[in-house]
Every structure is written in C-alpha cells, then in structure tokens.
Design a protein that fits this description.
Number of strands: 7
Shape: elongated
Length: about 110
C-alpha cells in the first residue's frame, strides 16, 4: 500500500507556482492551498491580471490534477502537478482547442 501523505500547510504543493522562464514561458501562476483533506487552486495570468477558472481539482496521493479555463479565449487546459523537489514540480498539461474546417477549394 502507498504512503499516505497528509494535506496541510506544510505540504510541498502548497504555495504559488510559476514558470521558471517567465521571458519565454507562460505568465500564468497557480496558488495551491490546503483545505481540510483536499487542495484548492487559484490561477491568474500575471500579464494582464485575468483570473482563470479552475475546476475538477483532484489529488490521487501523488499528483494534483485540475482543469483550467481561460475566460478571454475559452481555452481549456488540463494540468497535472507532481512534486519532484521541495520547491519544484513537474507540470504536464493538455490544451484543448476548437478548430474549424477551412474549405480551400475555389
């Protein structure tokens, strides 16, 4: 059986997370808080101050997953955070976008 990790203010995921390369990477920051036996996540794009809509926050004991909606462009992103060092997480994300067919025949 896996190790049970309690969720409290000392948990390594608790804090504010940003891309280490703010010049070339994303300007999105996420703040993770402990809330009872779960996590709460808030997101903001520091470039323009847009607050992101976070939903479906899940913790499997090893990875924190959540869905993010960028209101201004309706872009949906699924994030997975996994702690790899006390002040570092590995972030995996999947972007979902709507595309339309373009008829190139004239």
């Amino acid at each position: 059986m896996g190790e049970v990790v309690s969720i409290n203010r000392a948990h390594p995921l608790v804090g504010t997370w940003r891309d280490p390369d703010e010049d070339l990477g994303t300007t999105v920051r996420f703040t993770v808080r402990a809330s009872g036996d779960a996590f709460e996540v808030e997101g903001i794009d520091t470039y323009d101050g847009e607050k992101l809509s976070i939903s479906n926050v899940r913790w499997d004991g090893r990875r924190l997953s959540f869905d993010c909606l960028v209101p201004s462009n309706r872009r949906r992103v699924e994030y997975v955070f996994e702690v790899i060092a006390p002040s570092e997480v590995l972030v995996r994300y999947t972007v979902s976008e709507r595309w339309i067919r373009v008829d190139l025949t004239t």
